[in-house]
Amino acid sequence: SAVISQKPSRDICQRGTSLTIQCQVDSQVTMMFWYRQQPGQSLTLIATANQGSEATYESGFVIDKFPISRPNLTFSTLTVSNMSPEDSSIYLCSVGPGFTDTQYFGPGTRLTVL
Amino acid sequence: SQQGEEDPQALSIQEGENATMNCSYKTSINNLQWYRQNSGRGLVHLILIRSNEREKHSGRLRVTLDTSKKSSSLLITASRAADTASYFCATDPMNRDDKIIFGKGTRLHILP
Questions:
Q1: Residues A34-87 pLDDT 10s
Q2: Contacts for B48 with CB less than 8 Å, ≥ 6 apart
Q3: Each residue's pLDDT expressed in tens, for chain B with a length of 112 residues
Q4: Does an H or E element contain A47, and which?
Q5: A52 CA to centre of own chain
Q6: Which spans in chain A are helix H?
Q7: Cα–Cα distance between A30 and A41 in angstroms, integer?
Q8: For chain A, what is the mean pLDDT?
Q9: B16 vs chain A: nearest CA distance in angstroms?
Q10: How far is B112 from chain A (nearest CA, A)?
Q11: Which long-range contacts does A85-90 make (Cβ < 8 Å, 24+ apart)?
């Protein structure tokens, strides 16, 4: 299994600002995933971040809005840029050894945009 | 879409009773996973069942998978107040590498 931590656990931000969320894993992993969970909704995959390559974004998500860094095999950041109230969500990072096995999730970052 | 659909959307039962949640999906999968989420916190992995498995147990949890019906069920026996949470199924489709897809979840409330 993997132990994942995220920072910050929650934040309240003003419209137009940006927030960078950090995800730290206790072991080296190839694939890291970023999800968004809007209030009362299920999880939606934002992007897949592999170390050493550009993140792959899902439909509806773009790099300018959600830039991702993956500097090494244990760490990643997701930035929510130029925030609006519609960005208020829980953002979760996740790791998995591959699509055939279990994915583990961080505790999430609860973001509120005023 | 491939997204799984949990049924029911919400469920309230008395403590000690069994809770059953269902998940349906649309295309062939490699595996299906169940997760629990307590009050907007991170997800906790419960069980992974592979496409060639029909049933798995873990403590008070029992998961079944019927690939012919493209459905799965999660049974929690002898429910406890601490089981109050949202439960999500997540499918790993055969035609989408490395991405699992979540259903909308079932909100389970255990009444004292």
A1: 999 998 888 898 999 988 888 999 999 999 999 999 999 999 999 999 999 999
A2: A101, A102, B31, B32, B33
A3: 345 678 888 999 999 999 999 999 988 888 899 999 887 677 888 999 999 999 999 999 999 999 999 999 999 999 999 999 999 999 887 775 556 788 889 999 999 9
A4: strand A43-50
A5: 17
A6: none
A7: 28
A8: 90
A9: 27
A10: 24
A11: A85/A15, A85/A113, A85/A114, A86/A113, A87/A111, A87/A113, A88/A38, A88/A39, A88/A112, A88/A113, A89/A36, A89/A37, A89/A38, A89/A39, A90/A36, A90/A37, A90/B40
Cβ–Cβ below 8 Å for B40 and A107: no
Q: How far apart are CA A105 and CA A73, in angstroms?
A: 16
List chain B residues with CB under 8 Å of A42. 3, 88, 102-105
Alpha carbons B61 and A114: distance in angstroms, whole number? 40
Mutate to test the interface with B, among A1, A43, A58, A91 (most CBs of B within 10 A): A43
Q: What is the CB-side half-sphere exposure of residue B102 using CA atoms within 13 A?
A: 22
Is A105 close to B35, i.e. CB distance below 8 A? yes
CB pair distance less than 8 Å for A100 and B31: yes
